Amino acid sequence: DKIKSQITDKERTRSELNEQLDQMKQQRVDLNQMIEDNDSKLQECHQDLLSIENHYQDIKANQSKLDVLINHAI
Question: What is the mean pLDDT of residues 3-19?
Answer without folding.
Answer: 98
